[in-house]
UniProtKB/TrEMBL annotation:
<dbReference type="InterPro" id="IPR012340">
    <property type="entry name" value="NA-bd_OB-fold"/>
</dbReference>
<dbReference type="InterPro" id="IPR013955">
    <property type="entry name" value="Rep_factor-A_C"/>
</dbReference>
<feature type="domain" description="Replication factor A C-terminal">
    <location>
        <begin position="240"/>
        <end position="333"/>
    </location>
</feature>
<protein>
    <recommendedName>
        <fullName>Replication factor A C-terminal domain-containing protein</fullName>
    </recommendedName>
</protein>
<dbReference type="Pfam" id="PF08646">
    <property type="entry name" value="Rep_fac-A_C"/>
</dbReference>
């Protein structure tokens, strides 16, 4: 929940509020945030007015003890959790514009801990992307152990952790858990540093792709790599187009561009948009990988806009014969990485990260 102070309210209330203190606020209505200024669905704000009363509460309420849980425990059912992680990579800021024209800034932070050999992506949004913490800014020169408080699981594209309204990042954690984690980082620093270097090379690839065979990929087990492949038998029956939620991607029984509260993820202000998935078996001279493309990657693979794939699939006019000949006759590149969820179960599977024809 947020509240904004304007003009003379800053003088009137600004000095009252202190971090970690408890207040009783009266005569301050709650109202939905204007869509233009939303950070998340369901945002509400406190409206301060001339009758608003703010009173500090003298109480012995203490903050809940932070319960850190390992990355390997993340599942689709996980609620907001607190985690330690060694920062391996922080991306540049990218911008996402929603169907309603709202612009969001996003950064991806890759972290790892003692419970897993595969890094986890944490997407931070909006205000959190404006990083000023000197430790986080020096992530590529000094090891940074950070505590991420109040993260949530998102599955719109892949399986990642994402920031919420309550998320904070603490680069000065304390306590026995931190000491134990710090000792683990120091004891394994050479291996972790190599992992960081590999990840940076993957995230910031050279102009010339480093191409491996499928067998080499299977031997690597951990990293993200480019493979040069064909699809010998593209199957149109494995191409599915449907109306889906623009937030969670799941199927909805509504026409396109229909505003809704999603019946699957229950988020407000969702829109039904075209969604497409295509499953295929990619091969090279050494082996085979079963992969699935979603949305933007389908566009790259088919060389068609997603709306065109969606419409032509549904009315039966998609020239899949030409697409099939292209995919089976010409080699293209796929970036693949291990599936985090299956890795935890000791059954390694590979997922598509990107598609390129050049």
């Amino acid at each position: 929940m947020k509240g904004t102070l304007f003009e003379n309210q800053i003088q009137e209330y600004g000095d009252i509020f202190q971090k970690d203190n408890v207040y009783q606020i009266s005569n301050a209505p709650l109202e939905p945030v204007h869509p233009k200024y939303k950070d998340r669905d369901g945002d509400c704000s406190i409206r301060f007015g001339g009758q608003t009363m703010v009173q500090p509460i003298a109480t012995e309420v203490t903050p809940n003890k932070v319960q850190y849980v390992p990355l390997a425990s993340v599942s689709y059912e996980s609620g907001p959790d607190d985690r330690y992680g060694l920062v391996l990579f922080i991306s540049d800021i990218r911008t996402r514009i929603t169907e309603t024209g709202i612009e969001h800034s996003i950064r991806d932070i890759s972290v790892i801990d003692h419970s897993t050999t595969v890094q986890m992506t944490i997407s931070i949004w909006n205000d959190l992307t404006d990083i000023k913490d000197p430790k986080l800014l020096s992530w590529n020169t000094e090891p940074v152990i950070a505590a991420f408080l109040g993260l949530r699981v998102t599955t719109t594209r892949g399986f990642i952790l994402s920031s919420s309204l309550s998320t904070t990042i603490d680069t000065n954690p304390t306590g026995e858990e931190f000491v134990a984690f710090h000792d683990w980082v120091m004891a394994n620093f050479e291996e972790l540093e190599n992992k960081m270097t590999q990840l940076v090379d993957t995230k910031n690839p050279a102009a010339e792709k480093s191409i491996l065979t499928i067998q080499q990929i299977l031997d690597k087990k951990q990293e993200i790599h480019w493979v040069k492949v064909k699809i010998p038998e593209p199957d149109q029956a494995r191409l599915i187009s449907y109306e889906g939620c623009n937030k969670c991607g799941k199927r909805v029984d509504l026409p396109l561009n229909k505003s809704m509260t999603c019946p699957k993820c229950f988020k407000l202000d969702c829109t039904s948009v075209p969604r497409t998935t295509f499953k295929f078996d990619a091969v090279d001279e050494t082996g085979e990988l079963s992969l699935t493309t979603f949305a933007e990657d389908c566009e790259k693979l088919f060389k068609l806009p997603i709306i065109q794939i969606f419409e032509q699939t549904n009315i039966g006019t998609l020239d899949f014969g030409s697409i099939s000949r292209d995919l089976s006759s010409n080699e293209f590149y796929v970036a693949v990485g291990p599936s985090y969820m299956l890795t935890k179960k000791q059954a390694l599977s590979w997922v598509l990260k990107d598609v390129s024809w050049t």
